[in-house]
Design brief:
- This protein has helices at residues 2-13, 21-47, 56-79, 83-106, 112-136.
- The chain is an all-alpha fold.
- The chain has one domain.
Length: 138
């Protein structure tokens, strides 16, 4: 009898297996919030003249991928299981939305190989971040 109660409490303490889209969505939102804050800081730094505008594309790519990493980390940590999958999907959705916004605002499409490279890097980076995030839980 005592063993069955212990097993039941252990089963309840374990996170649910599988992919939870709620945590993926929270990871994407977190990534956008971080990107918004970092973009503001970068804009202020450039406005003050502390950084040349020539570095703007490089700096914004770094900000974007750092934001994606932190969003994947958050998704993996919150999910508690399958961190790599939560992070990878967070990365894919983040880069898809960013590319869609770029198309809507600038009415330009990046070359297909560039888009595929960014998507691949985003999925890989998100998967690594989700794996790190799930291990931060312990």
């Amino acid at each position: 009898m005592v063993g069955s109660g212990l097993e039941r409490s252990r089963a309840m303490a374990r996170p649910r297996e599988g992919l939870n889209l709620k945590y993926v969505a929270l990871g994407v939102v977190a990534a956008f919030l971080v990107a918004f804050v970092f973009s503001g800081i970068v804009g202020l730094v450039m406005y003050q003249g502390w950084l040349s505008e020539a570095y703007s594309p490089l700096v914004m790519n770094i900000v974007s991928f750092l934001s994606l990493f932190l969003g994947g980390l958050y998704a993996g940590r919150r999910a508690g299981t399958a961190g790599w999958a939560h992070g990878a999907l967070t990365g894919f959705l983040y880069i898809t939305v960013i590319s869609g916004l770029g198309l809507a605002v600038f009415n330009q499409v990046a070359p297909v190989l560039v888009l595929l490279g960014r998507a691949g890097l985003s999925v890989l980076l998100g998967a690594v971040a989700g794996t790190v995030g799930i291990n931060l839980r312990r």
